[in-house]
Structure formats: structure tokens, C-alpha cells
Amino acid sequence: MEVPIPTAVEASQSDSLQYFKRLSSKAYLYTPSGTHERDSRPLPNPDTNAPHLIFLVSWMNASSRHISKYTSHYQILYPSTPILLVTSSAPDFFPFSIQHRLATLAPAISAIRAYTDERQVSRNGLLVHAMSNGGGGQLALISKQYLTETGQPLPANTIVYDSLPGTARFKQGLATFSLGLPATWYLRMPMQLMFSILLLFCYILPQILGQKISALVIFNSVRPEFIRKEAKRCYIYSDGDEVVLDRDVEEHAKEAERNGLRVEMVKFEGTSHVGHMRSDPARYWGIVRRSWEGRA
Questions:
Q1: What is the pLDDT of residue 36?
Q2: pTM recorded for the entire structure
């Protein structure tokens, strides 16, 4: 089946998050029916194969303009499906921010619980799409908190991992935190120096001293108790990614397979970090749709 790709006009019309309701500084919700004040008609013929909720977790410091490239595709691919968006920024991933992060993510967890049933997982329930280590870190924290609140793993049917996970290396860590920084050197370099110092003291030194960082332990290991074991996990990655190395993604996927999880690995050639969709939209969204159709 041919995957619908937005035209330039459709993309420009959807090139914003103005129709998303702000739930917190990190969580936003798009609901198709009644969202547009000028057109409150119900959506015709909702797709019975569509997910009940799309949970999109963007990469660190992603701009709304870039995020909207993904939401606009989802709005065309599954027009009757609400979209829960969770964003992240660099300060979210240092130990002192954990309680603040939980507070800003609480509305997202409430939204997931409102659109899904933790007691009986629906086959058309939850499509999770996480991008880069920033998205993966937010997903890890949300999944852990969901388990704490409900006693059940996150009820995902399909999980798409785009450009993740990467391990805690200084070079790749700095590259991750540099995403979205100003291009002007006299602004960029001082900010990179600040992040270098924070990475050294909060991530690198504790590991050298043999201390385990809980966020990294959760994220870099396969924990099926946090996310439903039966969910299909699709890894989209590239040999040209300098932020998250292909060997790290493959190691994570193989560990998942050893733990009895359903895994698909799709490797692009030469594409940059979270640049796979931009490089080949038809292939990318075909992979997403196929992953959803092969859900559990």
C-alpha cells in the first residue's frame, strides 16, 4: 500500500504546532475532532486500523518547525488519531532536574492513561515514536513512572526508535547536547564548554568511579517490565550518524532479541542523526506504517 506523503502545500499548512494544546512545558496534545475552530465537523470514516494514540517523543532541543515535519505526516497518515508530543531540552538530563522532569511529564502520563487501558491492552492502542537519546531518555522516565503509578508496563503496541540509543561516551554526549545550539561560534563555543563540564561531572566521572547512573542504566539496558514486552520494536538508524553510532544501536537491538523481544532493524546509508526521514520520506513512513501493521 502506498504511504501518503504530504505535498508542499499540505506540509506548509501543518508546519506549526499551533493546534496542539499545551499540557505542560514539555507535553502537548493534538486532538483531531474540533481542534480547528473554523472547522468543527467530525472526521469522516475514521481508520479502524489507526492507533488510538500516537506518542511522539522528539529529540533534544528540537524546534517546533522540525517537529512539525513529523506531526504533519502523522496527521495525514492517521488523520483520526490524537498525537501526544513530549519534548526535551539539555537541562532535563542532569541529575538535579529529576523531580522537575517528573512534574512536567505528569500530564503526558495522564494523557496516555486517558487514551489507553492498562488493564486490557487494545491491538489499536499506542504507537510510540522516540527520536535520539533525548527522546529515549524521556520515554524511559515516563515508562518507569507509568509502571510506578499503574503497576503495568507502558501499553505500547509498536515502538519506533529513530537514531537511538547511544552509549554514554563523551564525544557522542557532547554532540547530542550540541544539537540545536546556535551556529555562531562565539555563542556556540561557550555553551559547548559549559556542557562539557557538566558532562564530565555528572556523567563521566561517576562512571569512572564505578557509580551507576540510574537514568543511563534504565535507558541503555532492555527493561521489558517498563514497556510492554509484546510490543514490536523497530530501530531506524544509519552508518553515517556521528551522534549515535550504528554499532550501539545494533548492540541494543540484539540484546532486546536475546531478551525475547520482537525486533526489526532498518539501516539507512550515509544519513545524519535524525535525518533519515528528511533523506527519504517515502521509505521512512513506509517503515513506520509497516511497523504499526505488524504490531502486537
A1: 40
A2: 0.83
